[in-house]
Write a structure and sequence with these properties.
With 253 residues, the chain is an alpha+beta fold. The chain has helices at residues 18-25, 45-48, 53-65, 84-95, 102-106, 112-121, 136-150, 209-217, 223-232, and strands at residues 2-11, 75-78, 127-130, 155-162, 180-187, 198-206, 237-241, 245-252. Strand 7 and strand 8 form a beta hairpin.
Length: 253
C-alpha cells in the first residue's frame, strides 16, 4: 500500500500538538497522565453535553485535522474497543435489571461517532466503522487505501480512537494501551506534490500463530503509539508486530 498523509492530529494525555509528538518521539518529552478533555467550543453546548469522553476526543482530532480542508469527504472511523465505558455501564444496567437508555445504547455502538460527525458537519459521504483487535489502526489504513484506489478518491479521512478500558477488563488487554485519538487525511501519493507531506508504504504478512501467541503473552505493542513514534521520529523504516501480523512501514521523500 502506498499513500500520503496530508495532515495528522493526535491527542494522548499530554501529547497534543505536533511539537509535543516530535519531542516525545525523539525521547525529549515523557508521556504523562493528563486526563482533561478538549474544550470543543466550536460545537454548540447542547450537542457537546451529549458527547462522551470518547466522542470528544474523536471530534477534537477530526475538526482540527480538517481545518482548511473540504469536510465533505469519505471517512473511516476505527476503534478496537469502541466506547466501552458506555457499553460497560449498559451491561451493568442489564445485570441489575434496570431500564436501558435508548440514547445511551444508540451512542454506544462502533459507528456512533461517525453518525454524530455526519449530523454535525452535514457530511453525507460514505463512512465505515472498523474494528480489528490489536491491528485496528493498520486495518483501518487498509480499508482507507482500498477505498482510495477502488473508488478513485483523492482524499479520505481516517480516525482512530480508544480509551484505557474499564478496570474490570484490564486483565484481558495489553498494559501498554493508552487513551488516544488520531485523525489523518490520507491522499493518493500520485496526486500529492507538497514535500511537507509524509509518503508512506505499508506491507504486511500473517505471522506464525504459535510464535506470536508467545509474543502476545509477553506483552503487546500498542500500535497507535508505535505508529506515532515512527511518524514523528527520524527513522525511515520500522516493523511493528502483533499476534497475527507483521507490519512493515517505510517513509519516502
Amino acid at each position: 500500500m502506498k499513500f500520503t498523509i496530508g495532515n495528522c492530529v493526535a491527542w494522548c494525555n499530554n501529547l497534543r500538538s505536533t511539537q509535543d509528538w516530535q519531542l516525545w518521539a525523539k525521547g525529549q518529552l515523557d508521556l504523562q497522565d493528563e486526563p482533561d478533555l478538549p474544550a470543543l467550543k466550536q460545537i454548540p453546548a447542547m450537542q457537546r453535553r451529549r458527547l462522551s469522553a470518547f466522542a470528544k476526543l474523536s471530534f477534537h482530532c477530526v475538526l482540527d485535522v480538517l481545518e482548511g480542508e473540504e469536510a465533505d469527504m469519505p471517512c473511516v472511523f476505527s476503534s478496537r474497543h469502541g466506547d466501552l465505558h458506555k457499553t460497560s455501564k449498559l451491561i451493568e444496567n442489564v445485570a441489575e435489571r434496570e431500564d436501558l437508555s435508548p440514547t445511551h445504547f444508540g451512542l454506544s455502538v462502533h459507528n456512533a461517532v461517525a453518525g454524530l460527525y455526519s449530523i454535525f458537519s452535514g457530511n453525507k459521504q460514505a463512512m465505515t466503522a472498523t474494528a480489528a483487535g490489536e491491528d485496528t489502526l493498520f486495518m483501518a489504513m487498509v480499508d482507507a487505501y482500498a477505498k482510495l484506489e477502488s473508488q478513485n478518491l483523492d482524499k479520505i479521512l481516517l480516525v482512530y480512537t480508544d480509551q484505557v478500558v474499564p478496570e474490570k477488563y484490564q486483565p484481558y488487554v495489553s498494559n501498554e494501551e493508552e487513551t488516544i485519538s488520531i485523525a489523518m487525511v490520507l491522499e493518493k501519493s500520485t496526486t500529492v506534490k507538497s514535500s511537507a507531506n509524509t509518503k508512506l508504504t505499508i506491507d504486511f504478512e500473517k505471522q506464525a500463530t504459535k510464535k506470536n501467541q508467545e509474543n502476545t503473552n509477553n506483552g503487546q505493542v500498542f500500535q497507535p503509539l508505535a505508529f506515532m513514534r515512527f511518524l514523528f521520529d527520524d527513522n525511515k523504516t520500522t516493523e511493528i508486530n502483533s499476534s497475527r501480523y507483521l507490519w512493515r512501514l517505510s517513509e519516502s521523500a
